[in-house]
Amino acid sequence: RLHATDVTSSSFRLLWPKLLSQETGYYTLEYAPAADLARKRMQQVSGAHTSLVLGDLAPETTYEVALIPESNVHYFPPQTTRVTTLAEEISPVQVLISESGPHSFHVSWAPVLDSVVGYQVLYGPLPGNSVKVLEVDGRHNSTVVEHLAPNTTYLVTVTAIYRSGKEKSLSAKACTQEGERG
């Protein structure tokens, strides 16, 4: 049976039983996203092969795959399978600081990914090494950092924590406003 191994966010390896040989024919491989079969791609593979890596695929996408043995000796029915690529583990690509006041600012980030279980927002004044951490649920993409010193530059690091346990981070600098002059 046709099946897939080594599945990643952008590729997988197909394996199939040896139906043909170099002399008796070749395979036509057709694959397309299940949601958009019009975007079908085709590849021809020598009859000597029993595996092939398909690359350049979209993450978190189910592919319909058909292996058609083109034999000049026997008729073999097409073998089909469905393979779903993994979620892509990308770091936050944007950290935005807004609504900056003397004692707080708003931090938001993008993109929001289903594969993230939560975010950690680390912040501390520059220069300095006192760092505080805010835990943010994976469904949210912003938080407010409060109780800050006025007229201070902070380093803010957003870390995405993935279901797989991997972590990816991105940092930005934020400045609080000057306090009210009495």
In short:
This protein is mainly beta and 182 residues long. It contains no helices and 14 strands.
Q: Which blocks of ≥5 consecutive residues have pLDDT under 50?
A: none
What coarse outline follows from CA principal-axis ratios? rod-shaped
Helix-residue proportion: under 10%
Strand content: over 45%
Given the structure, what is the number of helices? 0
Trace the largest sheet across and list its strands.
4-3-6-7
Total domain count = 2
Order of helices and strands: EEEEEEEEEEEEEE
Radius of gyration: 26 Å
Please outline the major beta sheet. 4 strands, antiparallel
GO cellular component, one term: extracellular region
Protein name: VWA1 protein
Keywords: Glycoprotein, Repeat, Secreted, Signal
Domain Fibronectin type-III: 1-89, 91-179
Break the fold down into its secondary structure elements and pairings.
Layout: E1 3-5, E2 12-15, E3 25-33, E4 41-46, E5 51-54, E6 62-71, E7 79-84, E8 94-98, E9 105-110, E10 116-125, E11 132-137, E12 142-145, E13 153-162, E14 167-175
Antiparallel strand pairs: 1-2, 2-5, 3-4, 3-6, 6-7, 8-9, 9-12, 10-11, 10-13, 13-14
Can you put this structure into words, describing what you see?
With 182 residues, the chain is mainly beta. It folds into 2 domains: 3-84, Immunoglobulins (Immunoglobulin-like); 94-176, Immunoglobulin-like (Sandwich), CATH 2.60.40.10. It is built from no helices and 14 strands. It has strands spanning 3-5, 12-15, 25-33, 41-46, 51-54, 62-71, 79-84, 94-98, 105-110, 116-125, 132-137, 142-145, 153-162, 167-175. The protein has a 4-stranded antiparallel β-sheet with strand order 4-3-6-7, with no helix packed on it. A 4-stranded antiparallel β-sheet has the order 11-10-13-14, with no helix packed on it. A hairpin with a 7-residue loop joins strand 3 and strand 4. One of its GO terms (cellular component) is extracellular region. This is VWA1 protein. Keywords: Glycoprotein, Repeat, Secreted, Signal. Residues 1-89, 91-179 form the Fibronectin type-III domain.
